[in-house]
Design a protein that fits this description.
Number of helices: 17
Number of strands: 30
Oligomer: single chain
Strand content: 15-25%
Shape: globular
Structural class: alpha+beta
Radius of gyration: 23 Å
Helix content: 10-25%
Length: 612
């Protein structure tokens, strides 16, 4: 077997029989954003965003552009791949409003939006945007807004922009859109729909809208029809369920009927990944679901849905990834299919056309929250009837890493489909996870990729049945972002369902920096904190540049179904709010605003057992 060594990865020729790879293993990871809105999305444009797909791509490849508020902006590092996911609902409408289309402005509601947009008043524009979101969620948008005739030109230009910037081997783009279901007045059931294909298959396929249907089952059938009719391929990524008010992982169909095997099969087939973190917070887990998890209370947006309507009692368990992974084990035993077999994804969900989410270079969710607004920490992001989400609550997140053979549309899409991905809150750390039964400590000290692929399966995979007397062993490794902070620790998060159907979870510290010791309860002391609150600086004098280890499940029962994923934490670093506080010399920032955080990454899981 010929081996060509590379940093933290290998290209291996003549792979093992039965491998998912025909010739090579992935040697490196490619980073990108799966969730980007330009000024062509109606809510973004109504808030004042004017950036086009062309400008969004130019920023992504490393060029300097001018922001919606006139600031020069350039990314610290370009992306490897990228996509525009403008809303299919009312696609093209904001372009007509801006152009002063008389048919559009004949409607008094739309004219009011146009007046707010043109007033130059940020509060008026933000209020109009919030009204639009509420009206869309309640299915009472003006008829002229829902007319599909505005979509065709906008979609064709979206496809053309993706094709113009796609440079195989250098920079990859995807043709995509967002299907934006705000059920029951704001319950977030959005999906980003991502094609593997080029313009020849996608240009003539108009995106599905919620004006046609809000039922995810109809979306999956639409995707199946697209594949059948064109010979193409498509997948969908559900958004952050933390704002679904319990509907993202409800164990019933959208119309309230019982889950069927067909429903579960379609969901599992067309939705391989789930968005764990983005500007609107995280959907990994929640302190009320994981009270023993000391790192569960981070970036919480848990007061309501997208219209800021309060959560019904008991809704939180149906909103978070970790809980869904456990529920999926139980449902597979009942249905023969696991509908919640989700890998890890992260995207920004910015609505500025500017995927600038570095903590010291954060341009916010909307135009009204760009750093030109020096008091954006206290400015409203989304308003509801009785509550609001405020600027400081925005998370400067997230990015997805994809282990792929090469930087091409086909290779990266295929890696997403097989779930060989990990989510980060922004840093470009590298994370590896392999599962098997024969890993040893020596494997973690050598070529992790060679050992992992030759002796086990990568993240996103299913483990074979355990040999007699053996428990699953996980080979884990992480390398710091070369331009970022050192690493605190690697943890394995396990969920399982026992013979009685009861779900459990446990978190294991596997590798960590320094000479800290795990106590009898399995807890590890904090790594420390070097952040200077006066200067927004930190030092890499604590933590480690690389961590690796082998975890052998000490609580394994071969009769249980289980799921494992890796969580990697950095040392504490300045949050974007601290950078703003120092940069603008803010003296009135609320003392409760968080200024320091621990960035993190999450691998896609590995599953074990008949219920997996």
């Amino acid at each position: 077997m010929k081996i060509i060594k590379k940093s933290f990865g290998l290209i291996l020729a003549l792979t093992l029989s039965g491998s998912i790879y025909a010739d090579t293993y992935p040697a490196d990871v490619f980073f990108g954003d799966t969730h980007v809105h330009t000024g062509w999305s109606v809510d973004a444009g109504l808030d004042g965003a004017v950036k086009t797909p062309d400008e969004a791509y130019r920023l992504a490849i490393g060029e300097e552009v001018v922001s919606n508020t006139g600031l020069k902006v350039r990314l610290g590092r370009p992306y490897d791949w990228f996509m525009i996911t403008d809303h299919s609902d009312a696609m093209g409408v904001i372009n007509e409003v801006v152009a002063g289309n008389p048919e559009m402005l004949a409607d008094s509601v739309v004219k009011g939006w146009g007046d707010a947009l043109n007033s130059g008043n940020d509060e008026a524009a933000a209020a109009a945007k919030s009204e639009l979101i509420l009206m869309q969620s309640e299915e009472r948008l003006p008829a002229v807004v829902t007319d599909p005739k505005w979509m065709k030109i906008a979609w064709e230009k979206t496809v053309e922009a993706a094709e113009n910037y796609n440079k195989p081997g250098e920079f990859t783009t995807f043709i995509a859109f967002e299907w934006t279901v705000n059920a029951d007045g704001g319950n977030n059931l959005h999906r980003n729909v991502i094609f593997r294909d080029g313009a020849d298959r996608t240009k003539g396929t108009l995106p599905l809208t919620t004006f046609e249907t809000q039922d995810p089952l109809d979306l999956w059938r639409w995707m199946a029809a697209y594949e059948k009719n064109t010979g193409g391929q498509v997948l969908a990524i559900p958004h952050n369920g933390n704002m679904s008010n319990g509907r993202m992982f409800e164990e019933q169909q959208f119309d309230g009927s019982a889950i069927t095997k067909e429903w579960a099969e379609l969901r599992a087939n067309y939705e391989p990944l789930y968005e764990l973190t983005q500007i609107k917070g995280q959907s990994e887990s929640h302190p009320s679901l994981s009270p023993e998890d000391e790192f569960a209370a981070w970036d919480l947006w848990d007061r309501g849905n997208l219209a800021v309507k309060s959560k019904p009692e008991g809704s939180i368990p149906q909103e978070y990834w970790r809980e869904a992974l456990k529920s999926g084990l139980r449902l597979q035993k009942q249905l023969g299919v696991n509908p919640f077999r989700y890998g890890a994804n992260a995207g920004s969900d910015e609505h500025t056309g500017l995927s600038a989410i570095e903590e010291d270079n954060f341009f916010g969710k909307f135009k009204t929250l760009e750093p030109s607004n020096q008091n954006r920490w206290g400015f409203s992001v989304i308003d509801g009837p009785t509550d609001s989400y405020i600027g400081w609550e925005q998370s400067s997140s997230g990015v997805m890493g994809v282990w792929a053979i090469e930087n091409t549309r086909e290779a990266i899409w295929d890696a997403m489909k097989r779930k060989e991905t990990f989510a980060t809150t922004g840093p470009r750390m590298k994370v590896r996870l392999f599962g098997g039964y024969d890993f040893s400590a020596k494997d973690a000290e050598g070529d992790v990729a060679m050992a992992g692929y030759s002796k086990g399966v990568p993240m996103g995979s299913q483990l074979a049945a355990a040999p007699e007397g053996k428990a699953p062993s996980l080979l884990v490794a992480a390398m710091k972002d070369p331009e970022g902070a050192n690493l605190d620790r690697i943890q394995v998060v396990k969920g399982w369902v026992d013979a009685s159907g009861a779900a459990h979870e446990k978190i294991y510290n596997v590798a960590w920096s320094g000479d800290r010791k795990v106590d009898s309860a399995g807890k590890l002391p904090a790594v420390g904190n070097t952040v200077n609150l006066k200067t927004a600086e930190y030092g890499n004098t604590i933590g480690a540049s690389e961590l690796s280890g082998v975890f052998i499940d000490p609580d394994f029962d071969a009769a249980d179904s289980a799921v494992y994923y890796v969580r990697v934490l950095e040392i504490p670093t300045p949050r974007w709010t601290l950078y703003d506080k120092v940069r603008f010399d803010l003296t009135d920032m609320d003392p409760d605003v968080p200024l320091v955080h621990q960035e993190r990454a999450f691998s896609s899981p590995i599953w074990y057992g008949a219920g997996a």
